[in-house]
Amino acid sequence: MSQVAATPVLGGALDEAVGRRSRALLYAARIGHIEEARQRSQDARLRPYRAPELCLHAIDAVAVRMDLESGATWEQARAEVAAQAARQHPAGTEEDHRHVAEWLLRQLTDEHDHEWLDTAADGTSVRRTHRVFLLYETEQAGLHHLRARDQAINVLVDALDLDIDSAQHAAEARLEHLVKRGRQHEAYLAARDSRMQSIRFMEQVRDDLREAERDLRSEHWSSTVSPRLSAALDHIVERIRAEERLKQLIDAASDRAEDDDFRWIPRTVELLDECLDRHMSLQQVIAEARDTFLLEQQRQHLQPRARRAYAHPVNEVLTKVLGQQCAAADELIALVELALGARAPRLLSEWAGVDQLAIEPSAPAETGREVAEIELTPDREPLLFSAERVAAAGRLLDTVGAEPVPLAALARRAADPETAHALALLALAHRSPELGTLHGQGVRNALLAVPAERDDALTSPGLLLQRVELAEPAESLAQGARIPGENSPRESSPQGAASPAPSRAQDDAMEAVA
Amino acid sequence: MSSTTDLSADAGLLVRLSLGARSGPLSEEHAALVGRFLAEPALRGATEATIDGLGLRLVHASQEGGLLLTSAGADSPFRMRLADYFPRQTTGVQRRMLLACAMVASFVAFFPRPEDLEDSNERLRRRDVDDVDRLVRDVCARLDAEARERGEELDPPIDEPDLARAWTVWRQTSNSKKGADGREREVGTRQVVVRCLDLLAEQGLLRTIVKGETYASTRRMQAMARELVGSLAWSQVAPSHPETPEHAAEAATSEYGGGNDSMAADSEVVA
Predict the structure, then answer these.
(1) Is residue B232 less than 8 Å (CB to CB) from chain A?
(2) Alpha-carbon distance A254 to A251, whole Å?
(3) Which residue of B has its CA nearest to A316?
(4) Could you read off the pLDDT of A265-279 as tens digits, one per residue?
(5) CA distance A328 to chain B (A)
(6) ipTM score here?
(7) Which of A86, A442, B179, B208 sits most deeply, having the most CB atoms within 10 A of its CB?
């Protein structure tokens, strides 16, 4: 056994192709991640749907509507996905379908960094991150639309890593082979792949054209960008020829086709026509663009444009702004105002005026809020006596002078028992044991210490001293002093009672004595 | 062929149309003028002179987007004044800072990476209001963690609201939709962000997808974001976080020293 196949070096399989394929796989994996995100989501409305199929439908819907200038709008794509969602979950409402479609488009346009293993020039492996997103929204000539990325379309056509030129060749060869063998259904499927490849190719040409436009002013335009466009043009011419040949082939094949095949043949032809149209218009665009660019370049003087390196918006700029002290606010606002664009000056734009009118007066901050009028409702039991009876009892008490009067005698003069009852209670309020005792012991003038309004150095509150005279006690009558008011001492009956004001003075006196 | 007068009239018309332009296809007349602007040096010169004379500045010019203009300086009559749109949000220094941060964040959230700012990158984004707020809060949390690690004093003296760091102000402001009484909050970060985004939409820099919820960026905004990021990156505003403790000490002493000086001056005036 001398013939030994070259033994693969251990680990030698890790070459560049594996790296490229693993990068291509990231795009397919992204669809799996979206499905995982759906399963993890707290949103119950996403539950009945399956994300992978919807993703593929979404990419397909966007890709087939793409041309150089425009593509599917967000709303169109959403409607398309929602229709597929309705198919998955017929019981769901229209709104649910739209909800899942919107969510899905947001996922597909979101970008994620993924790691992959690249092979460096010296054979060692390098971990790199690759930014993965499948669809993106863009604006061209003021119109907003979605575009599918080249790699996303690749996922659709199940090609891991093929360069577009070869992929188109391969798709056509496959189609030709299948048509020749009369396998019309499979030919139709191959034609679909062919169409997707033509869309991918268009996307590539579009990138080249934009690159050409940007680099127009660079001196290397004719040496670097232009050849790429020429190559694209050659490729297109080749495609157009191949597509026309394929159509003839299908025509020939349809002569000996069976009934079943006629379900597929017209569709295949339709797809081929679409590719043909696309390639022909691309050919025209590139040819025109080259002429325009060359003319432009001759006219404009060369002005190498410096590529600016931008600061990282989040890590540098936003972080810097948030790290500043509030004192920098005005300076920042001035910079922001410049980035808001211009506004045609007006005296007072109408809505600014409305806004000013709508502002509440700022007074509360200065002067405090106005105190609302408080209405209190009584929170106690209804009174035992009516107001008139209390007043009548008060009047009876007022009649008491220096002469001692027994309460019982006074009560007899009351109009009714309730008034008498009220009178007794009022009279009791004037009972004063301490003064009564003093009076009973024959004291005829007592020293009162009345609290003053403010403190003094000695006591708190300060005390006013005052000597008051007490009347002679009436014989055989119970004690009970009548105390004069603070400023106008006067005699009072032992058991009488007087108006409320003196009674308050009496209370004060009691405290003082205590 | 066109006389000077015609040229001036065309230049004026182009400026007028550009001022009124919003995201969306240009009108036929407008597109024709932009095409001439790009191709005819004479009209270009006249238009640039007009722009300059009016106190405007040309930010970006392209066949598709037309001319993107902004005011040239603080005294330009075309200046957008945030105070006109946020009368209440500009009363205190901390509120002004909140507003400035919300505005910067509104731009940055749609163009979060350097490559997003490049003219060749035509990718646009959709963002929810909460995405913007979350972005700021993430950065705030990071700054907070870093500051704590350095053992910085975070609370400014109570009588010096100027010294409060922007991130602490943002963190202290609620982002909930509703206040405790169930009414829309007025000064929550979320509300400030919504109003910033609405203003940007009104200026034609954003597209409103769902008002108060979702917005999408435009190419016009990309050009403006480029401007803003550039000017902020180069602005001479005090360094955000000092690299070394020595720097921190220096910065702190100079700030406090300044404060004391001004206070001393005040007391002299009073005396």
Answers:
(1) yes
(2) 5
(3) B233
(4) 888 888 888 888 888
(5) 7
(6) 0.80
(7) A86
